[in-house]
Amino acid sequence: MDSPSSQRPMNMTNSKSSQSRPSSPRLVKAGTAFKKGSGGGFLIHRHNWKPRYLVLTLDALLYFDHQDGHLKGSVDLSDVYDTLALEIMPKDCHKTGHSAASEWRLRINTPSRQFVMAASCERDMREWVEALLSVFRANERRRSDTNRRQQATSSAVSSQWTTNHPQVLCGTTMTF
User: Fold this and answer.
1) CATH of domain 4-141
2) What is the pTM of this model?
3) Is 60 buried (19+), middle (13-18) or exposed (0-12) by CB count in 10 A?
4) Could you tell me how many helices (H) and strands (E) the chain has, helices first?
5) What is the pLDDT of residue 92?
6) Quick one: which of 53, 57, 97 has its CA closest to 77?
7) What φ, ψ does residue 33 adopt, rounded to 5°?
8) pLDDT value at position 46?
9) Which residue ranges make up each domain of the chain?
10) Contact, 2 vs 60, CB < 8 A?
11) 34 with 51: CB under 8 angstroms?
């Protein structure tokens, strides 16, 4: 039997994945890691570790079943700007038990959820860290550019308004 790290999804395009496909599908990194479950079992709320094939784009982290390639879920990263959203080796997530997940763990904190993953080794974890941080920095640049454009547009509209309507000043009408 192949190890989870050698597995690749056979089909990354199904009806579910086409609905969840990010708007900017540029691939940043892809590979196999373990994802910590949400603990939403029926009776026992275990946080099992499952091998997943991860695909990181500029907007999202998609995770697929490592054997059949079906999309299992995604993490929206478009609103993650702060590098502090990434925790390396979180203290409350150390290795216990006999799971196949390694000790090389990361937590991504987004406005809507947390995503915990375990890389196969330290080098792989560092590669995921660099890739995720590059996405967060790109989001910050995009947000800053958008803010600058909005401020420039607002300033231009305000300037044009006062030039074309000199009698209106500070909300009062002045007569000449």
Assistant:
1) 2.30.29.30
2) 0.69
3) buried
4) 2, 9
5) 76
6) 57
7) -150, 175
8) 64
9) 4-141
10) no
11) yes
From the list 127, 121, 113, the residue with the least C-alpha distance to 37 is 113
Instruction: Report which of 36, 47, 57 is spatially closest to residue 131, judged by C-alpha positions.
Output: 57
Q: How many CA atoms lie within 13 A of 12 on its CB side?
A: 14
Pairing relation of β-strands 104-109 and 86-88? antiparallel
Tens-place pLDDT, residues 9-31: 444 444 344 444 444 468 999 99
User: CA geometry: angle at 115 spanning 111 and 119, to 5°?
Assistant: 145
Q: Look at residues 59, 56, 74, 61 and name the one whose alpha carbon lies nearest to residue 139.
A: 59
pLDDT at 150: 75
User: Within the chain, which residues score under 50 in pLDDT?
Assistant: 1-24, 176
